[in-house]
Amino acid sequence: MLLSNKVCNHLFKKIPHAKYDENSIYKHKPGFLMIFFFSALFSSSFSGMVYIAAFFIQGGQIAKDIFSASAAPIEHITEEAYKSLVVNIPYATVLIALLIAVTWLLSFFTNMLRYAGFELRRDKHIIEIESGSITPRKFRINLRKVNYIDLRQNLIMKLFRVMSVNIKCSGYGTNSRKNMPVLMPVQTKKQVESNLGKVVKTDISFSEGFKPELKSFWQYIWLSVIISVGIVPITYILGEIFDKFRNLTLFVAIMAEIPSIWYVIINLAALTTSRIIIEDDNIQVKYAKGFVFHTVIGSREHFIKLGIHQTPFQKTSGICTVSFYFHGETTEVHSVKAIRTSDVLAMNNILFGSNKKVEPTDFS
Prior knowledge:
46% of the residues lie in helices and 23% in strands. By secondary structure, the chain is an alpha+beta fold.
């Protein structure tokens, strides 16, 4: 809804807000370097490749015309850069690389503008968030309506022991392209340990909890290994069929192999770091989805369902995949694979007070 500043100011006066004075329980304003770091890590370097892939998959004259028109200015620059290269790199390779670099930069600067001036304040009942330079945004969130916390890391962030603190609640961060549900853009592990309880009245636990069975590592890496190994024969076959494009095929294979191997490493890390912790009123689920590590922290009040799934292969090994569901605008599944069935029985007893035999089904 488009409203005048006068009407907006009147509405904001009617809505509870976090106080600016000494009554504020917690304030957080990350520095420029933290925003820069956050924008660099969460900018999409694959959007250019996705765009090109969509063009080749969908085809059609319309897509071809759009691609030609958008690539024309870049093509001229690429051609000039290509002439100055000593190494014999395929021309199409340079064009693709430039497109990926340009899309990453656009995404990076968009994030910088969106999260510039980020500030968080919290009093007894309200979390207030402000961000954005060109388009300022203000959010006032009822603390009791926060469904759960999601601490996110990619592999590089995990190595440097930093994370992004996100929240799940109605109306905030519903459009991932424009608004990520960010509570604190970048925090070190020590800062999260110290500050999380001040912001959302919950703390991160470092208990051992229920962990995946390490000997079932294939449950975690099978897909990434198949993708990584499968690239080699596919590249060879394509090179034999399209001999003129052998160099380009090799380049695309290398570019595909790098994230594939990266994906294998992430899944191995997920095997050793994933776990489920149930302490008092809190449920904590650590897992990896895609290239991102998640630590979800929710209360039993917002927990709605426990899913237990077991394939025939898992049954022979005595393990299950356990999925947790919490309240939210959209259904999101938080799953940990290769959990022992004895641990699942213990979890079921803690959550539902039942010692009965657990079958692979859903509990709610």
